[in-house]
């Protein structure tokens, strides 16, 4: 293994079982076969089994940061847990060279009844740090974590943000040679994110980073290359983060409509309409264009409903919500129903977006179901912007009268 290569993954696969009872049975069978020296048939799938990770290969060198991206359920966290030694692969080989610092789950590795101070020493010891080395870094860890007066309080009283700050501080100041991060930075506030990004960039020269996130801004800021996963398989392995992010956006666009919750309605068709109620071809919307959403559906249950709309970006984050203060009640009908939703002018930055339709019970306003990816559309805008929503403004410059009076010409 090359001295610069910190992580090498070679044709790795991992299978799971959908049934708890069968997984326990298969586990007993596999243990019995191993004790008898028989093969456990790792390459074969038994009933209810599936490949969570399927033939994945890559390597990460010191000074590199690999961004692993993909939709929910694509296998990102499973892969990270195998890199951390929590799971063993069923096929293939993983070689890890160096001390690993991992942030895979909020609160992982912390004992809830112990204080923050005690958990710092325990976590550092797990990472291979001696007490003397922890003592030398202790003040820096506490200052970075910024948990104030809660240092000597049991961590069961910590918020999720405090868990993340403390866990990240321990992992980063114990000088890991490999740093694994799984979406936990999404929990922290903006100030902590900026501080964490700067710290990751500082330690990258001495370690390899594997970063899992749905936030493409963070991937672009941290990573030097990307791996795109879909259903456990590598769809793209690129040495440039921009290429991976663009490919991920294409996966986002190609996905179909998904219904979560009760099947109250059946969507027949959904369309974007312009201000004249004409169909917007290719779902390409100009900045500040007036847009309507037309939904054609059948009722599957005899209910009266109301609806609400969310707009999500390619990272599946909500960027806009549309609702009525006095919701229009959509009456149950045995026939097809058309609903036209006026969402006004689209003031989003350039990019791909999807529409989520929320179906609510008109009696108590509770959500019955949500329909992800009802529509996918692209916003065109000639200017670049760092925010999701772009608002025009008017600027008026003037000199206050109290000041202007001082500059009047004396006769």
Question: Could you walk me through the main structural features you see in this protein, from its secondary elements to its overall organization?
Answer:
It comes from candidate division KSB3 bacterium. Belongs to the ABC transporter superfamily. Keywords: ATP-binding, Nucleotide-binding, Transport. The chain has two domains: 63-89 and 98-253, 3-Layer(aba) Sandwich (Rossmann fold), CATH 3.40.50; 258-380, Coagulation Factor XIII, Chain A, domain 1 (Distorted Sandwich), CATH 2.70.50.60. Helices cover 25% and strands 34% of the residues. By secondary structure, the chain is of the alpha/beta class. The strands form four sheets. A six-stranded mixed sheet has the order 5-6-7-3-8-9, with helices on both faces. Strands 10, 12, 14, 15, 17 and 18 form a six-stranded mixed sheet that branches. The longest helix has 16 residues, at 20-35. Strand 6, helix 6 and strand 7 form a beta-alpha-beta unit. The radius of gyration is 27 Å and the shape is globular.
The coarse overall form would be globular
Q: How much beta, percentage-wise?
A: 25-35%
Radius of gyration: 27 Å
Q: Secondary-structure element order, as H and E?
A: EHEEHEEHHHEHEHEEHEEEEEEEEEH
Class from secondary-structure proportions:
alpha/beta
* Low-pLDDT residue intervals, each spanning 5 or more residues: none
CATH level 1 name of the largest domain: Alpha Beta
Question: Which architecture of the largest domain does the CATH hierarchy give at level 2?
Answer: 3-Layer(aba) Sandwich
Helix percentage? 25-40%
Instruction: Strand order, main sheet: write it out.
Output: 5-6-7-3-8-9
Please describe the biggest sheet, giving its number of strands, its sense, and whether it closes into a barrel: 6 strands, mixed
């Amino acid at each position: 293994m090359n001295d610069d290569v910190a992580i090498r993954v070679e044709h790795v696969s991992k299978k799971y079982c959908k049934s708890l009872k069968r997984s326990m049975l298969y586990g007993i069978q596999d243990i019995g076969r191993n004790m008898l020296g028989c093969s456990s048939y790792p390459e074969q799938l038994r009933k209810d089994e599936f490949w969570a990770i399927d033939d994945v290969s890559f390597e990460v060198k010191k000074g590199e940061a690999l961004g692993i991206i993909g939709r929910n359920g694509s296998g990102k966290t499973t892969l990270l847990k195998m890199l951390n030694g929590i799971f063993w692969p069923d096929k293939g080989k993983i070689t890890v060279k160096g001390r690993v610092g991992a942030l895979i789950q909020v609160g992982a590795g912390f004992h809830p009844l112990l204080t923050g101070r005690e958990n710092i020493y325990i976590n550092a010891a797990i990472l291979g740090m001696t007490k003397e080395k922890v003592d030398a870094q202790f003040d820096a860890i506490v200052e970075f974590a910024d948990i104030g007066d809660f240092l000597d309080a049991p961590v069961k009283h910590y918020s999720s943000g405090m868990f993340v700050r403390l866990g990240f501080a321990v992992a980063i100041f114990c000088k890991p040679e490999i740093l694994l991060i799984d979406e936990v930075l999404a929990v922290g506030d903006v100030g902590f994110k900026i501080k964490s990004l700067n710290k990751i960039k500082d330690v990258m020269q001495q370690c390899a980073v594997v970063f899992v996130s749905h936030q493409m801004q963070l991937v672009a800021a941290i990573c030097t290359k990307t791996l795109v996963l879909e259903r456990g398989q590598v769809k793209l392995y690129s040495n440039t983060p921009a290429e991976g992010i663009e490919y991920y956006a294409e996966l986002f666009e190609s996905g179909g409509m998904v219904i979560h919750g009760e099947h109250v309605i059946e969507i027949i068709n959904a369309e974007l309409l312009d201000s004249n109620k004409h169909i917007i071809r290719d779902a390409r919307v100009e900045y500040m264009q007036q847009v309507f959403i037309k939904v054609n559906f059948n009722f599957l249950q005899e209910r009266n409903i109301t609806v609400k709309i969310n707009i999500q970006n390619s990272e599946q984050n909500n960027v806009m919500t549309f609702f009525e203060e006095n919701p229009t009640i959509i009456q149950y009908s045995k026939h097809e129903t058309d609903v036209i939703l006026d969402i006004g002018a689209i003031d989003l930055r350039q990019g791909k977006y999807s529409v989520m339709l929320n179906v609510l019970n008109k009696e108590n306003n509770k959500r019955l179901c949500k329909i992800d990816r009802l529509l996918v559309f692209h916003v065109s805008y000639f200017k670049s912007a760092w925010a999701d929503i772009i608002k025009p403004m008017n600027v008026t410059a003037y000199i206050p009268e109290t000041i202007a009076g001082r500059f009047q010409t004396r006769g």
